[in-house]
Amino acid sequence: MGYGVRASAGARKSPGTSHARKASTGWRSWRRTSAPDTSPPLLRLCERGTPVVPHGVSLGLGGADRPDLGKLVALAERAEALGAPLVTEHIAFVGSGGPLTASPRIEAGHLLPVPRTRDALDVLCENVRIAQQLLPVPLALENVAAFLTWPENELSEGQFLAELVERTGVGLLVDVANLHTNHVNRGEDPATVLDELPLEAIAYVHVAGGFERDGLWHDSHAHPVTRPVLDVLAELCARTTPPGVLLERDDDFPEADELAAELQAIQAVVTRASAKDVRTGVPQRVR
Amino acid sequence: MSDDDLAAARERLALAQHALLSALVAGSPPPEGFDRRGLAAQRRALLTKRAHVIAKVAPELREILGADFPRLFRAYAQGRPMAEGYRRDAADFAHHVLATTRDAERRQRLTVWAARQSDSTPEKHGLLGRVMSALKKKGS
């Protein structure tokens, strides 16, 4: 189990990438190569033997266009510099417009859900293959949180993810807080999604805090983890033992003991649900 | 699947995504079939996120504008989509405030900040990054 933060030191030089620090069992050892554009705190973590996973937020692999090669190359360079065992991104689009629509390109500034249609799946699979060809390590993709449901949806979330994995061999970064978000906001039952997922494709798992307002769940990464999110984690762990679990926290950091208590609560869920032991990482902020 | 089929799928997806995103950030009418409450929540969330990131990318702006930052940023960003990343967005926001505020001290500080920004355009890192950047410029 581990604890992830956005590496603010690296944000200026390489927009669109955050780093998940992960201490867990069963991960390939890392090697360090020298490269510019890698912040000293991250390299210190690497020197201590902590696997560091670049977590992209701006590739928009679920978008209509082919992925930006410059961003892919930057991600590949970063993965090599950090000796990352894998890199992760999201199943999302982050902008639209451009030549395909004959209108100026606009940015969302955040992750938006893709329609679960055959068209979107075909495009996503092709984009994932392009990314896989350029990346030096395996890619895993995360399910996103959403407020919106596309009226065009043809597949369930689980079916969409399962077919994506089958066609590309991509790994899954399952965010249980996002499953909870979509339960509250879109009425999608996390247990049903988990039932349809190819469990063997799970690379690791995200947990995060949030809050409910006016009947909608906000996946803030700045609030304590709540019981319903831990319940979804328990559902997942009842089906498989995840290779690792990471608590995402981006803002309003609590005191260390409060954070440690959150990690213990997560650990307790994993331990209760699975026979195998999962080592607990010591929370540590990257500065 | 043939290249033509995939190209057609890209085009259909592009139009669908652009219709939604335009409704969320550019003030276009929403595409049919979306839940109004979800659209409103997503619109607010994108705006909040954008303001939050700008405050982090350009903490000086947050400091200069103080308690007015959220209100001024909303006024700037509503119906004005981000097109070229957060740094450009921060600079455009500063210029927008400069054009609309009469507060002399604020104007002076914003002018100094904006001048400093245009002096420090970040360089592309790594040989591959520079090559990709050059290729992209050539292609566009």
UniProtKB/TrEMBL annotation, chain A:
It comes from the Bacteria. Residues 1-42 are annotated as: Disordered. NCBIfam families: PRK05409.1. This is DUF692 domain-containing protein.
From TrEMBL, chain B:
It comes from Streptomyces olivoverticillatus. It comes from the Bacteria. This is SCO6045-like C-terminal domain-containing protein. Residues 14-98 form the SCO6045-like C-terminal domain.
